[in-house]
Design brief:
single chain; alpha+beta; Alpha-Beta Plaits; 4-stranded antiparallel β-sheet; 4 strands
């Protein structure tokens, strides 16, 4: 079983759509093993977006700084999900980083519509509802950064009947 990190960004929290989006993950059979609301510091986000995700290195300082500012506009909800190929499957469910390019049926395709040009013109980050870990290595680092070991829970759900070896 894989684990991955989801962050409901301030735009999702402020719009009141967290429950609806969370339900999609549960309906797909993913198990919530960690969940909390918080308002991290700039340093916390800096480590997340550059120390782990290398956003500044990949996309430049302007995008990095606007992302840090937008993430501090309100509280976020951090969630650890567990399931079969959780990282890649959840990335498909979330859709393209640019909501305008995200397919209908994906979270970003259904709940957001902004594009990179609009974000650049307004000097804001792309409001795209959620962050999802890009790969398994990033997921492990992000989970360790956002959650203490005692904040991750191990329990069984009905879906595991279909994903675990027969006894």
């Amino acid at each position: 079983m894989e684990r991955t990190l989801i962050i409901f960004k301030p735009d999702a929290v402020q719009r009141g759509i967290v429950g609806e989006v969370m339900t999609r993950f549960e309906k797909a059979g993913f198990k919530i093993v960690g969940l909390k609301m918080l308002q991290p510091s700039e340093e916390h986000y800096h480590k997340h977006y550059e120390g782990i995700g290398t956003l500044k290195t990949r996309k430049g300082n302007e995008i990095f700084e606007s992302t840090l500012l937008s993430m501090q506009e309100g509280p976020v909800i951090a969630m650890v999900l567990e399931g079969v190929e959780a990282v890649s499957t959840i990335r498909k469910m979330v859709g393209s980083t640019e909501p305008k390019s995200a397919l209908p049926g994906t979270i970003r395709g259904d709940f957001a519509h902004v594009n990179y040009n609009q974000a650049t013109t307004t000097g804001r980050a792309v409001a795209n509802i959620v962050h999802a870990s890009a790969d398994l290595n990033e997921a492990k680092q992000e989970i360790d950064h956002w959650f203490k070991k005692e904040e991750i829970f191990d329990y069984r759900v009905v879906h595991e009947h279909f994903t675990q070896p027969k006894s």
